[in-house]
Amino acid sequence: MHAGNAGGAIYRSLVAVIDENAGNRDEIAKALASFYRVADYPDVEMAIGRLRTPPAAVVVDERVRVPDRGLLVRTLRDAHVLKDVPIIVCRARSRSIEDIGRTSGDVEPDALLEKPFRRSELINLVSGLINRKVEDGWAHLPPGPQKSLRETLAIFHGFADLIEHGEPLSQEKLNATCAPLLEVVTASQYQHVLRGVRGHDNYSYVHSVRVATLLTLFGFTIGLKESALMILATGGLVHDIGKMVIPHHVLNKPGKLTAEEWAVVRGHVKLSSDYLRKFSDVPKGVLTIATQHHERLDGSGYPNGLTMDKLNDLARMAAIVDVFAALTERRTYKAAMTPDEAFALMTEEMAGQLDLRLLKLFQEIFHDAVVREAV
Fold first, then answer.
1. Residues 104-154: pLDDT tens digits?
2. C-alpha distance from residue 67 to each of 17, 70, 91, 104 (Å)
3. What are the residues whose beta carbons fall under 8 Å from the beta carbon of 6, sequence distance 6 or more?
4. Which tens digits make up the pLDDT trace of 330-344?
5. Which residue in 85, 158, 267, 293 is deepest, having the highest Cβ count within 10 Å?
6. CA-based end-to-end distance of the chain
């Protein structure tokens, strides 16, 4: 289910699979298992009867049995537990969504998936529908957080094309995109942004928005000026921009990375740095955040193994927020930690790597500003 504790830790979403063929159910469940929890059922009646909370999506075969000879999609839509859940109908032949409604009298599903389908098709379709539902929910947020989420998402979608074609990332546009985020933080409405990305399936987007938000909150609470806050917000949003061109199957691999794959993932820092350095209007602070957020005080970080005397407070703050955000977010390869678990790990196991003075300060800020507001 979509749920989260304080600070926006995100848990694995549930997808319901309905298919009379046990082999088909097993195949779909295995395809989805790296990204989602799966509950599978042989018929609609059992699915409706046993689901206790709404799943994030339903994947259903067109031939499953429906109680009282009812219409498939209409029956699912009429079930309270599935009222607003995206429905994907798997079909053996090509036919439009509109055709289903015209020829059968049924209501339209959210999407059709023609069999046989590739695993990537299924995952992309489920992910896209989940994201659409999350993004539609932003309409209920206050104007400031809503604008912040929509504008950061819009610019984020374009990052990969910019890097691939060597086109400049306009700092002026980036500043304009992050201006609503600054307003949200200074108006103490940032909890709406952190809640707003819960359940979103674009992990890189979720991480970047959370880093930008928490880093800006960090700076605002310790009294930094607006110009510095803009550096934190924009730097946080683009700190992993190099990941946009890393193959999805490597970036979100469920199992252990090979040495070659790990080298590719670590290479995102150089990709970010090389891209951002091409453009003269990118502030030095933004470059610092992008190039040094994986550096550690004891020299164990990457890509340059910088040590304490080479890392200023900006780099140290970025490292703390990046680690905290990563630990409290779910990934295909790990569950999310609670904030307290993350802070304990960072304090005890990373004591020589992170600035403990700034870490303690961030922990106090997080608990005072975030937990008390039940984010």
1. 567 889 999 998 899 889 998 999 999 999 999 999 999 999 999 999 999
2. 17, 6, 20, 16
3. 338, 339, 370, 371, 374, 375
4. 776 677 899 999 999
5. 293
6. 17
